[in-house]
Amino acid sequence: MGWMIKKPKITITFLMLLLIVGLITYFQLPKREIPEFTFDISTITTVYPGATPESVERNVTVPLEEQLSSVEGIKEMTSVSAAGISTIVLQLDEQANKEATISKIRQSVSDVSSQFSSEIQVPNIREDIQMGALNSYHLLANDRNDLYELGKILSNWQKEIESINGVRGTIIKGVPDHELVIALNSEEMAQKGTFFPKVMEALNAEFKTVPLGKEQVDENIQQLQLQTYQSTVDIENVFVGLTRLNEPVYLRDIGTVSVRQKQPIDIITYEGTPALSFTVLPEQGVDIPSVHKAVDDKIYELKQNLPSSISVDLFYTQNTIVEQIFKDLTFSFILSIFAVIFITVLGLKASSAFIVALAIPTSVVLGLIPLPYIGVDLNQISIVGFIIALGILVDDAIVVNDNIERRYQLGDDPLTGALNGTKEVRKSIITSTLAVVFTFFPLLFLSGGNGDFIKALPTVLITTIVASTVVSLTVVPIYMSWRKNKYDSRNGCEKIKDQKIGLLGNYIDAFSNWYGSKVLGKVVKSPRKISIIGLIICTAVYGLIPFMPFVFFPSADREEVTVDVTLPVGVTLDQTNEYLFEMADYIQKDNAVEEVSVYAGAGLPGLFGQMMAGSGNHTGQLLIRVDREKSSADELISTMTPKLQRDFTIAQIKMTTIETGPPTGAPIAIKISGPEIIKLIDISEAIKSEITLMSSSGMVVDDIGAPWPTTVFEPKREKLAEHGITLKEISEQIRLKTEGLPIGSFDDGLTNWDTRIVVDELKKGEELALDTLLLPSKRNRNEAYFSPPELISFDELLSEKETSQIQKIPHYEGERTITIRAYPGEADKAQLEAKINDIIGQFSDFKEYSIVVGGETEAQTEFFIEITKLFFIVIFLIYIVMAIQFYSLVTPLLVMSTVYLAISGAVLGLFLTQVGIGFMAVMGIVSLAGIVVRNSIVLIEFIEQRLREGYELYEAVQEAGKVRLRPILLTAFTAIAALIPISFSGDVLFQPLAISIISGLLFSTVFTVILVPAFYIALHQKNR
Q1: Closest Cα partner for 903 from 770, 1004, 771?
Q2: Which band of pLDDT confidence, cut at 50, 70 and 90, is reported for residue 34?
Q3: For the chain, how far is it from start to end, CA to CA, in angstroms?
Q4: Selection from 70, 69, 75 nearest residue 96 by Cα
Q5: What is the pTM of this model?
Q6: Under DSSP, is residue 926 helix (H, G, I), strand (E, B) or coil?
Q7: Per the CB 3.0–4.6 Å rule, which of 244, 449, 462, 843 could disulfide with 662?
Q8: In the 8-state DSSP scheme, what is residue 787?
Q9: CB-side exposure of 530: number of CA atoms within 13 Å?
Q10: What is the 3-state secondary structure (H, E, C) of 660-715?
Q11: Dist CA 621 CA 605 (whole Å)
């Protein structure tokens, strides 16, 4: 790079152009709360109206699973067959081509569904699952019926909002859909001599016509069209048959046609006021603040047309969180810059500190340029990456600056000193930069959500450190040469030796001389003894690990707490809503609770990654907002959970808050697989009973649910045969009276209405009475035409009994599998895991049934196995780089010893602060591997330079210690200073990372300047 130093104008011009590009990149990079992580998951939902779970499993789920099992690219397949619906979830292999795999899945589903019976609806395939919403609004009214009238208005809102660039979709909850209902009266049908099959035949004849085609008239081709009814009112005029006296019968004579609201699946209440929610989902890669503004402006415009009884409240916006995060992290970033500059001023001249400080924004801006092409945006992870980089990126500038200053003190002229000073350390700097790059590069290959979550950190560190290396090897020597020229022209060359270097320059020089002569003087006398003592101390520190807390991802320091509530199946949505209201009032009495929102039914619209599984009329969620000045979310959960479980005993209750990382499953999950569902339930209940007896078990649930109360109608076969009545006719009549039969859709030119037909529809709360259901007997069908048929009551054809049936049948990889999930406290998790292994050992005699323990712990174990593999790859890559530099297989081991020392320091720091080992602490430990080797490389490289110049071993070591102590201390303390604001910020996510790096650097710096020289001398003596 000498030519770049010799051609400063060209170099600076080129650098300025890159800085302009970097600044433009900064303003174009999207800003968001956390990195985007999408799940390579596809869901297949198939509705089979009125079917039992067994029927859904047999006729829908199993055929689909058998076909999908042969599709390459599917990593995992799970399913649930519930009453009336099949849901299959496919997790795609990360290495597979997603588009090709989805295409194969679609084709397989299409092949199978073409063989389904007509009652089964076309499967719905959803390809993307993305966490997090942009905004969520509550529309509030004193009367819930006013909200129910907003269907058309909200449909227009959806079109308007979804047309905004950057909006992926919207979710409306709390507004029931409408449908067209044809309600028939059996008495009027009987009086008119018309029966249901004739009505269905007439409706099909009216609406299921075939296209007429075209005709050619002269030389013109004309389209032919049959005029059909276009209005819902006109449907009443459909001709359905003749009376016995040959009088026409129309639909209006035997029933009514009306547009009705469907049964709601959600009831939402905000602070006691009826509400509905309108949630906006962002597209991938968008800038949250700008899209939020566009959406909020449009909502403000749209709400002007709402009735006066309706108000709109912004319930949640990611933008507020983004703004707060960027405000806090920007403040930490600025503090870190000042802290780094302050440290450099202590050990360098003011002019030298200036160029080192200038390297900070220059390197950061240059490091931004590649980010858009790598898929990294500005979020809390990437900003913390820049903060970590602050302390590292000045290392190279400090080393280059210090060595050039040394050359000037030896008498070199401005250009020669800049060239020689840079050349002497260039190899070490490039090697140490490669060590940092090789440290973080493997982290880009972490799999799953953890990999997506952390990707920004290694990416930012790599790009910024590479940029800082380029700046250090070009801009710093150019500036130093220019400054020396200017100084010489004013003061003369000889006075440079008398200048004070830094505010503490004299003290640092004195300390360096003392260290080189006294400390290293003792080290060179007993290198082996010192090496052994140092290794024993560091190794002993590792013994603290079992006594440290473990938190994979801590709870976020946020105000939201979610309460999942599951009541016994069979309760109505209104009953669930009342129960949740009672619970909300109970929680509201806590003075730390600011507000409570009630979401009966399907729960929240996925605002915080807290979506309910297996939702229905018997489920719901509460969203609590906590006054963080009075209590934290975790504190409220720990105090409120036992109270709720004590006072609301019929419900399963789980309280959670937002985690700082990708969502994880239950801490402990037990999968029980086998052929017979009843046997699986028996094993599951036995295991649950054993676990529940443990005081440390917490909440224990399974994914099959409680049995569903069921009325079974047993046919009297002889009676059916006597009257010629089939089970199909029986089931059809019962269904017509309960839920009705869907008969497709009716398009009136404006709306495509779902259409349902009912006969003698049951009123709300009314029980089904068999004696009210009649079918004509077929045994006297040869009698006179005008003779009315004999009507047979269903109580003559059926007997009924009360029982229960399975609520749902889950599958894992095509096999019936029940999953038990336990949610113990963090402190009880390890104890419970040990006991669970003993419990499942009691069921080893069931040969056809397998029991596997997994869950969040299993996922975390897989992560640590993966990160351990990557760590060894990191060590190997760093070793190879240094082996090439030093042309030795042994010397790199000396350098790598600092990694061992640094990790012991990180362990000690985490233990003393009781922050705990988790995902980010491990990231900090991995980061240390690349950071701490830099000082060892610089120190050993200088020792070997002195040996090549003819110094004796002891002299070379002591001289290297004197010369290199300043840059070693400055680089270590600048990195520490950069992270101190993060460590004291109270951020639960980044504290472990900052503490592990700070304590590791402190520990390794002290031991590096003592043990590395001792290791080097001991090894050199042995080889000699």
Answers
A1: 1004
A2: confident
A3: 37
A4: 75
A5: 0.79
A6: helix
A7: 449
A8: S
A9: 22
A10: CCCCCCCCEEEEEECCCHHHHHHHHHHHHHHHHCCCCCCEEEECCCCCEEEEEEEE
A11: 10
Length of the chain: 1024
- What confidence tier does 432 reach under pLDDT thresholds 50, 70, 90? confident
As a whole number of angstroms, the distance between CA 161 and CA 295 comes to 7
Nearest to 318 by CA among 347, 289, 355: 289
CA distances to 540, 910, 914 from 544, rounded to whole Å, are 8, 10, 11
Structure tokens at 153: 């208005």
What DSSP element (H or E) covers 340? helix 318-347
Residue 752 in tokens: 């495509």
CB–CB of 708/804 below 8 Å?
yes
Distance between alpha carbon 588 and the CA centroid of its chain, in Å?
30
Copy the structure tokens of residue 34. Answer: 């956390």
Phi then psi dihedrals of residue 654, to 5 deg: -135, 125
State which H helix or E strand residue 205 sits in.
helix 196-207
H and E: helices and strands count for the chain:
33, 32
Q: 604, 616 in Cβ contact below 8 A?
A: no
334 backbone dihedrals φ, ψ, rounded to 5°: -65, -45
Report the distance separating Cα 943 and Cα 946, nearest Å: 5
Outline where DSSP puts E strands in 533-685.
Answer: 560-566, 593-601, 619-626, 652-657, 668-673
- Residues 584, 561: contact at Cβ < 8 Å? no
Handedness of CA 747, 752, 758, 764 (dihedral sign): negative
Dihedral (CA of 796, 802, 808, 814) sign: negative
Mean pLDDT taken over the chain: 83
Tokens 């170099």 label which residue? 11
Per residue in 739-752, pLDDT (tens digit) is 888 887 787 777 77
Q: Is the model more confident about 90 or about 401?
A: 90
> Helix (H, G, I), strand (E, B), or coil: what is residue 492?
coil
Rg (CA), the chain: 37
What's the CA gap between 487 and 483, in Å, rounded?
6
Please give the Cα distance from 368 to 976 (Å, whole number).
Answer: 23
CA dihedral over 9, 11, 14, 20, signed as positive or negative: negative
Q: Beta strands 850-854 and 124-126: pairing type?
A: unpaired
CB atoms within 10 A of CB 211: 9
Please report how many Cα atoms fall inside a 13 Å half-sphere around the Cα of residue 535, on the Cβ side.
11
The dihedral over CA atoms of 951, 957, 962, 967, expressed in degrees to the nearest 10, equals 110
Coil vs helix vs strand at 90: strand
Q: Which amino acid is at 668?
A: I
Residue 956, CA distances (Å) to 314, 886, 950, 960 in order:
69, 16, 9, 6
Nearest to 282 by CA among 164, 386, 394: 164
